[in-house]
Write a structure and sequence with these properties.
This protein is an alpha/beta fold. The chain has helices spanning 41-48, 80-92, 104-115, 137-141, 147-150, 157-166, 176-200, 208-215, 244-247, 263-266, 268-287, and strands at residues 2-8, 11-18, 27-30, 54-57, 97-102, 120-126, 201-202, 205-206, 225-230, 252-256. It contains eleven helices and ten strands. Helix 2 (80-92) crosses helix 3.
């Protein structure tokens, strides 16, 4: 796995790359809020082994990518996040890709697909934000007025590890690398976490006006959609997946048993069993 630094919208941006020689559409992976590119480590090489180059991007303010200035992350007009992902694809020389996103990254993947459907081969939403309106209490708390001041205070390494454990059904599956990375990246990205959550959420859940504006654009993307969810997700409940039918009536749902909010890290084999055949079907249909 290669780590590259590129410039995207003027921001120093880190991308992890697994190259493949085949000509199939590449895969772009987008992590969730508070995450980093290595959240997809366990599935990158297996995905590349199927003949698709794989790119995992650190979003601005997370991992090793520079923080943005004042931006409107979710818009809904001129939204920063889809512009950033599409600009990253330009910088990487990727005209079209399968877009895969986890949690907030799933919401971003959706925004990319409806903003630039011609650049989206297939869409994979992994416990995606925005399909429903329910979110965990600790995320809604981050949206409270004044919480940004608390984000400036230092946090202990153990508090970062505790947050990581909430994303797993079985914390024993958390690798030493993930524990080390959450300490390295978690505290310094916390202010960005709060800024993003403040624009996405209210104390009651997903901001309905922002969600309604984006859901209203669903018809712009007519390609294949797969939703993957861990049944024991404690961050975004599986019940949020019920929103799939209203947004993408032909979308498919794959539920992974005994798995939490990050199936690609906690249950990589089951994740790949769902995603790889889906991509193969999508590519065959596009070629027909």
């Amino acid at each position: 796995m290669e780590s590259r630094t590129i410039s995207v919208l003027g921001l120093r941006t880190r991308v992890l790359v697994e190259r493949a020689e085949a000509a199939a559409d590449p895969i772009v992976l987008i992590h969730g809020v508070g995450g980093w590119a290595e959240n997809f480590r366990a599935v990158m090489a297996p995905l590349a082994a199927t003949g698709r180059s794989v790119f995992a991007i650190d979003l601005p303010g997370f991992g090793e990518t520079e923080r943005p200035g004042r931006v409107r992350y979710f818009g809904p007009e001129d939204a920063f996040y889809p512009r950033f992902v599409l600009a990253a694809m330009d910088a990487l020389g990727v005209p079209r890709a399968h877009i895969v996103g986890n949690s907030m990254g799933g919401a971003i993947a959706y925004m990319v697909a409806v903003t630039a459907p011609e650049r989206t081969g297939a869409l994979v939403l992994v416990a995606a934000g925005g399909l429903g309106t329910e979110v965990a209490l600790f995320l809604r708390v981050a949206a409270l007025p004044g919480f940004g001041l608390l984000a400036l205070l230092p946090r202990s390494a153990e508090s970062s590890r505790r947050v990581l454990r909430t994303r797993f059904y079985d914390p024993a599956r958390i690798t030493p690398e993930l524990y080390e990375e959450v300490v390295r990246y978690g505290d310094r990205s916390f202010p960005e976490f709060v800024r993003a959550m403040h624009q996405a959420l209210s104390p009651r859940g997903v901001r309905r006006g922002v969600r309604a504006a984006w859901v209203g654009r669903a018809a712009r993307y007519a390609g294949p959609v797969l939703v993957v969810w861990g049944r024991e997700d404690r961050v975004l409940p599986l019940s949020d997946a019920a929103g799939l039918g209203a947004i993408f009536p032909r979308g498919q749902l794959s539920v992974i048993e005994r798995c939490g909010h990050m199936p690609m890290a906690e249950c990589p084999e089951a994740f790949l069993d769902a995603v790889v055949p889906f991509l193969e079907r999508a590519e065959r249909a596009a070629a027909a």
